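Record Secretion system C-terminal sorting domain-containing protein, 174 aa.
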Amino acid sequence: MDIWTPDATLFRIKLVDFLGDGFGGAGDTEAELAFTPATGQWVTLSIPLSDFSAGGMTSFSDINQLIISAQPTGGATVYVDNVYFSVNQVASNQDVVLNDYTVYPNPSVNQWNITSSNQLIEEIAVFDLTGKMVMSNKVNSESITIDASSLRPGIYIARVTSASSVSSLKLVKE
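=>
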């Protein structure tokens, strides 16, 4: 799910399952998750159903409601796009290629070098911990140098895309 808001301080998603006996029946189960969204930019939320299980939902056989709300109540504007539901792929007998990435120096003051030992890096995107993309590069190489000089000190997540996978790397800026 992608969301954009200029002013919401809290974003909530609730799933409700009627368990086949309709609203108000004995089998109703629900769970609500809350997120603090970045404002003024599109943010992608990828939420496993297991997060709703951890929130108390006990069944997913008859999901009837997806309830979206935000705070401040009655005063927040939120745009929602690209709501997807998916199921994890079952195991197969196909070969799995594990990407092996090296990041150095990490922590860094001015730059990070990222190398792959077995695949071309197609693209890299760096996000701060609010989910805001702070930079993105098309690479098509086994290595890239990321200029971190304009970034504030903190922790960043690099999303590294290759032909067969997407990996996340933790980057620390001093």
